[in-house]
Q: What sequence folds into this?
């Protein structure tokens, strides 16, 4: 029994409906990658069919679905277009979830219905030039000024920055050392003193609108503070959902597409008088790819269910993300190898699949950082096999 076989009838219907809808994104996936253009038209298609803001409670216009359902949606989108899946995971992920769990009632009513309607895109920004894995090294700051705050500094690697309307920005708000001095503010596009840099040209996920952010004496009113200094632990708890339904789930979808593409190729490609899929060595490679994919999917679905039951352990999230990231890299690399020269050609999706998942082992905490977390828990005794 695979992980997919353990879904309810409603969950399978949701998965299949999204897969069918997202199949229309395939044709534009390479164009988004080639032109560095976020496929916002796909987001409109998803929102028109009611697939945005699905985790938002009914009181704010959403469906109130769980993390597992959100995971199923993003996985199916990623099978067709990884860039759309990243846009989806941002607008249906960290920022709106943080507003739902940490925001004021006024903030919830101001923003959440617009996420559901698909007319508000979100991003969040944590990293800086000298503060990536070391969050305590943040230097961007927000200083009190009358009834509001003035933000100064810069941020790096902000996914969806080119298209986002609302940004959750982590800034230093007090002199307390480390994360104790860090808070979170909501900054809307077009706020004076806030500038979005040029689209970053990276190895993969080139259609996600990733860019740096610049703040020069940027004023925001006090009601745009999501949480003050000392609230980072609460935010990180919220982010556990995105460590599952976002990053590793995108890896699942891309890896599944790579495996299916490789299987189709070896069944049709003939060498030495037979289909290359008839050679035992290549069949074993496909088998290993399937084993890793099913293992990653089982971990992701298990973690999503635990989150929905309020039982997630951050170490489980670290284990899941690390395994899914590295399995996807191996699967997409193997798919390129099986496709031979075609695997290296931009006319085929194989090399793009590899490029799109390669950076996922860096984003949302490098796999090395997550291994540190796992190893610490083992040594301290909070994790036992």
A:
């Amino acid at each position: 029994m695979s992980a997919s076989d353990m879904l309810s009838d409603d969950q399978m219907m949701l998965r299949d409906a999204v897969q069918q809808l997202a199949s229309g994104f395939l044709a534009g996936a390479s164009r988004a990658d080639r032109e560095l253009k976020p496929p916002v038209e796909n987001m409109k298609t998803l929102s028109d069919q009611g697939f945005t803001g699905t985790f938002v409670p009914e009181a704010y216009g959403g469906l109130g679905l769980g993390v597992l359902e959100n995971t199923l949606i993003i996985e199916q989108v990623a099978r067709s277009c990884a860039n759309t899946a990243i846009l989806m995971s941002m607008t249906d992920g960290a920022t709106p979830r943080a507003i739902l769990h940490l925001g004021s009632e006024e903030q919830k009513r101001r923003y959440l219905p617009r996420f559901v309607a698909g007319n508000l895109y979100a991003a969040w920004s944590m990293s800086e030039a000298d503060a990536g894995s070391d969050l305590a090294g943040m230097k961007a700051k927000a200083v009190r000024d009358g009834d509001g705050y003035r933000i100064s500094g810069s941020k790096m690697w902000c996914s969806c920055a080119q298209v986002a309307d609302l940004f959750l920005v982590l800034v230093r708000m007090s002199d307390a050392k480390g994360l104790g001095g860090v808070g979170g503010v909501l900054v809307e596009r077009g706020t004076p003193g806030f500038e979005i840099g040029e689209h970053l040209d990276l190895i993969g996920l080139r259609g996600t609108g990733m860019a740096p952010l610049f703040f020069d004496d940027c004023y925001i009113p006090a009601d745009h503070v999501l949480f003050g200094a000392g609230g980072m632990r609460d935010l990180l708890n919220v982010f556990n959902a995105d460590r599952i339904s976002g990053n590793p789930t995108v890896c699942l979808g891309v890896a599944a597409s790579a495996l299916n593409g490789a299987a189709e190729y070896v069944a049709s490609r003939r060498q030495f008088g037979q289909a290359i899929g008839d050679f035992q060595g290549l069949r074993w490679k496909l088998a290993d790819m399937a084993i890793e994919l099913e293992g990653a999917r089982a971990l992701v679905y298990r973690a999503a269910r635990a989150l929905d039951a309020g039982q997630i352990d951050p170490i489980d999230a670290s284990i899941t993300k690390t395994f899914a990231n590295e399995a996807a890299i191996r699967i997409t690399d193997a798919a390129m190898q099986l496709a031979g020269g075609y695997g290296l050609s931009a006319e085929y999706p194989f090399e793009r699949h590899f490029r799109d998942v390669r950076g996922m082992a860096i984003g949302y905490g490098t796999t090395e950082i997550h291994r540190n977390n796992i190893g610490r828990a083992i040594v301290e005794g909070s994790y036992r096999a």
In short: The mean pLDDT is 94.
